[in-house]
Structure formats: structure tokens, C-alpha cells
Model the fold of this input.
Amino acid sequence: MRAWTQYLFNQLYTNFAWAYDVVAAMASLGEWQRWGQAALAFLPRDGRVLEIAHGPGHLQAAMCQAGYRAFGIDLSPQMSRLAHRRTLRYGPHLARADALYLPFANGAFAGAVSTFPAQFILAPQTLAEVHRVLIPGGVFVVVPAVRLIGQDLFAGALRLAYRLTGQRADIDALGEGRFEAAGLRFARYAVLTPRAEVVVWVGSKPAG
Done:
């Protein structure tokens, strides 16, 4: 059951990308974009910021509107097209690329961000690449999950769906271990919205 559910979930990034926003809005009780934008408060204002797996481009657009020097990568051609259309007015800096092989120079970014990424984000090679492209003192901000705080039946059904798609109870411990192993100092924060506690990880590259 979990494998089938995960397969359908993954299709939203490729063949069914056109339905991603509708499904995300339903699955978050209308808070999806707000959850992702919780990352903004932890990103540096000075310097370039790379979004890894930008998806349909909502956070890219929000960063551009807020004055960030935003760049983004994604492997999905469907998501790349959606994000390009959404950010066209801002002169987007988007590329199709793999997080395991970031096509950027060492120290190219002051910050990097990824919201609700798949498991690739904790792969040692991904984190090594992020560490490489960050400047000393740069930060990697990840929104890996939310904790729903509502007690209604719909919220309960969503909790079950999140478990079926692989959300782990020990995700904070896993993230901390992987970040620290990659040379990123780990900190966990929580941002409250009306319906959820948004988990935010911040990995800092030592300045010295």
C-alpha cells in the first residue's frame, strides 16, 4: 500500500504535475504555499539563494517578489515549465539539474533552500554538493515536514496519508545526523500556522 501511494505521489512531480497545486492545496487545507514560505525567514538577504527542487515555482516567485537573488534547479521537465511560466516576469534563473551534481562553482551561493523534498535531499552526495556551493557562513534551509495541529476528521485523515507517503517520526534525528556528517551545523525550528507546526531545519556552513 505504501509503495503504491508513494508511486502516485511521485507522479505529481512528472506526469500529473498539472494537478500538483490542486492536490497540494487540498492536502494542506489551503496552507501549502504558507508552509513553504516559512523558509524565507531563515534565508540570507545578501547574496544568491539556490532553491533545490523548485517544483511549480511558488517559492521562486515569492523570493523574487521579496527581493532575493533567486536561482532554482529541478529534474522534472514538467515542473520546469510550470516554474518558468510562473516566474517569467522576474527574469528567472532556472535550470534542469540533479541535486547530486549541482552545476555551480564552489561558494556560489549564500543560501540554499528546499521545501518538502524527496529522500534525495538527505543523500550524503546531495549534502556534500550543498556544502560545496555555499560560501563560508552560508545556510541550507529545509522544510521537511509539518505537524498538523487540528483535531478534526479531515486533519486525522491527512495524518494517515502523510504516514503512507513515508513521513518518518524520527525525521529530526535523521536530518541532524546527516547534516552534521556533511559539515553543516544543525538547528531545528518550528513555525506555527493556523493548522500546522512547520518544521524548519537550518544547516550552517562554518565561517572559518
About this structure: The chain has eight helices and seven strands. The domain at 2-204 is CATH 3.40.50.150 (Rossmann fold). The mean pLDDT is 85. The longest strand covers residues 134-148.
